[in-house]
Amino acid sequence: MLTSRFSPARRMSRGRGQRGQNAASAFLTCVALFPLLAHAFLPATFKPFRAYSDASSTLVVPLSRTSTDTITSPFESGVKQGGGDDGPLPLTLENVEMVLDEMRPYLMSDGGNVVVSDIDGPVVKLELQGACGSCPSSTMTMKMGLERRLKEKIPEISEVIQAMPEGPALSTENIDQVLEGVRPFLMVAGGSISVKEISGLGGLQPLVLLHMEGNNQSLFSVRMEITQRILRNFMVPGLRVEWTDQVS
């Protein structure tokens, strides 16, 4: 990217002295550190950058995920995992790990993993890590993939449940720390964000209510990214993130 003569960053840095260098630096910071946000902002907010490249040039975001890319459970296809059937196994930590080892390559290929959190009688608690922990298909991964295979190999298992890792306390201060990572880009688009309310702590569905100001359409396109950052950071079961303009 940087060495290509078609690189937009390189074209920016060539022109107009220090101004060109600053534009290139801002572009690289945006696409390298926050690719998803950059993907949303570039079409609208960064139009001025086009002045530093030829009219026929197109700005690209090399690290961003296309809109059609989705993270799905590696077990959605229903393909049976693992090798041959050697008969039922007794319920032990070693046997659970052995069965999980058959399926870990599928999880790792999607940037995730699984570890045994606890075995409580016939109940096995597993913790999904990495991309699998925050994936919308984590329930399908747990029930249709891991639980099904474990029960096939170890009939003593009555249930496999997902153990949530302990994260930081859900507070306004800690949520603000997460939001600090996106505020610079919201400011570029003429917007701001703040925590309006936290409710339901200790309940089944705690709620974080966020308030966003600004009229730029790019602001709305990054809401999902902000929501996912909060869910990944706190890992609170049942946590919901909503916006003030969506609440009547």
From TrEMBL:
* InterPro entries assigned to the protein according to its UniProt record, in alphabetical order: FSCA_dom_sf, NIF_FeS_clus_asmbl_NifU_C
Q: What sequence ranges are listed for the domain NIF system FeS cluster assembly NifU C-terminal?
A: 96-161
- Provide the GO biological process annotations: iron-sulfur cluster assembly
Gene Ontology CC terms, in alphabetical order: mitochondrion; plastid
Spell out the Pfam families in the cross-references. NifU
Source species, domain of life:
Eukaryota
A GO MF label: iron-sulfur cluster binding
Question: Record's PANTHER family?
Answer: IRON-SULFUR CLUSTER SCAFFOLD PROTEIN NFU-RELATED, NIFU-LIKE PROTEIN 3, CHLOROPLASTIC
Family membership noted in the UniProt record: Belongs to the NifU family.
Protein name per the record:
Nifu like protein
Q: Whose protein is this, by species?
A: Nannochloropsis gaditana
Lineage in the entry? Eukaryota, Sar, Stramenopiles, Ochrophyta, Eustigmatophyceae
